[in-house]
């Protein structure tokens, strides 16, 4: 069987000359239709870069990313992305944020069907009561749910999730984890989840693949997650196999993390430089350098 998605010998760097950083090196991954794969890794190791190359927002320097055997040339409705930062349009209601995406993917759908379709996904993430609200009137968890509903309403073949739940409180996070898995299994989607949370990976995925720390981050050995579905967190928490697996993955991550630190400690001596911020006084209120989207 041909894999739905194939990443072959992919490498990606940023910058050039002496400031060149080799972020990802020789990434190989093959994902079958209907699979749920979680990639866990350290912050800054290149997880977002990897997901961007699958979604078609960025391209490899070396190697290829194939979908159904064809190289990915850009973003497409076959891949739905759920980002970490919601990315909703602030001037549109919940309904209209989702409608905008649905209009784009299903231009021929009748108004009535479209309305039904949009409302179905809003109900699925339990936001029917907030359908006419603006993003500014919603909590972070609710915004993230809109973003989940929007990605699902586009009915993509592959669901790409870039730490979609990391900004949420534990309770909301747990609910959304369950909702995403439920929809994935009902709608027979293929899912790739990027996360820094091993427990999240164990709860949701069929396989966990670690991304080693950068630079030159690469995918490590895979860990199969064989717990029956539906998985109930409180139940698998008590399973000795859960503890064993969790420790095995964490041990692996710590080991590659520690090795990497040793290597980089020897290699680079970082100069002790304080950044100069464009503020009036060094001790005054810091100016906000980047605005949140
Ligand atoms: N456009 C860019 N130009 C230069 N360097 C970049 C660019 N984008 C990312 N990087 C660098 O590449 C590395 C990997 O970034 P990336 O965002 O893919 O990592 P990540 O694992 O998703 O990080 P995090 O977990 O913090 O979100 C980082 O060191 C980052 O500083």
TrEMBL record:
Lineage top rank: taxon: Bacteria
UniProt keyword Transport, yes or no: yes
Pfam families, per database record: ABC_tran (PF00005)
Lineage: Bacteria, Pseudomonadati, Bacteroidota, Cytophagia, Cytophagales
Provenance organism: Arthrospiribacter ruber
Compartment(s) where it occurs, according to its Swiss-Prot or TrEMBL record: Cell membrane
NCBIfam families: ntrCD
Subcellular location, principal: membrane
Identification of the protein by name: ABC transporter ATP-binding protein
UniProt keyword terms in alphabetical order: ATP-binding, Cell membrane, Membrane, Nucleotide-binding, Transport
CDD domains, per database record: ABC_NrtD_SsuB_transporters
Membrane topology field: Peripheral membrane protein
GO molecular function: ATP binding; ATP hydrolysis activity; nitrate transmembrane transporter activity
Recorded GO CC terms: plasma membrane
Domain ABC transporter positions: 5-238
């Amino acid at each position: 069987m041909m894999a739905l998605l194939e990443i072959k010998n992919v490498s990606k760097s940023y910058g050039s000359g002496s400031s060149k950083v080799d972020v990802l090196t020789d990434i190989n991954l093959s994902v079958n239709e209907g699979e749920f794969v979680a990639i866990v890794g350290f912050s800054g190791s290149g997880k977002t870069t990897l997901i961007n190359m699958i979604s078609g927002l960025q391209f490899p320097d070396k190697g290829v990313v194939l979908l159904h055997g064809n190289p990915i040339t850009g973003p497409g409705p076959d891949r739905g992305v759920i980002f970490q930062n919601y990315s909703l349009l602030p001037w549109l209601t919940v309904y209209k944020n989702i409608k905008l995406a649905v209009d784009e993917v299903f231009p021929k759908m009748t108004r009535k069907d479209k309305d039904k379709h949009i409302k179905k996904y809003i109900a699925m993430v339990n936001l029917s009561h907030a359908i006419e609200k603006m993003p500014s009137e919603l909590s972070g968890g609710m915004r993230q749910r809109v973003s989940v509903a929007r990605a699902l309403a586009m009915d993509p073949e592959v669901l790409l999730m870039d730490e979609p739940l990391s900004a949420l409180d534990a309770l909301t996070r747990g609910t959304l984890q369950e909702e995403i898995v439920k929809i994935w299994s009902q709608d027979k989607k293929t899912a790739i989840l990027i996360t820094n949370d091993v427990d999240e990976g164990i709860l949701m995925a069929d396989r966990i693949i670690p991304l080693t720390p950068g630079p030159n981050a690469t995918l490590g050995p895979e860990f199969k997650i064989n717990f029956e579905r539906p998985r109930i967190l409180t139940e698998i928490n008590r399973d000795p196999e859960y503890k064993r697996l969790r420790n095995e993955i964490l041990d692996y991550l710590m080991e590659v993390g520690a090795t990497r630190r040793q290597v980089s400690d020897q290699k680079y001596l970082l100069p002790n430089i304080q950044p100069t911020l464009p503020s009036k006084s060094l001790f005054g209120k810091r100016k906000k350098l980047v605005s949140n989207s």
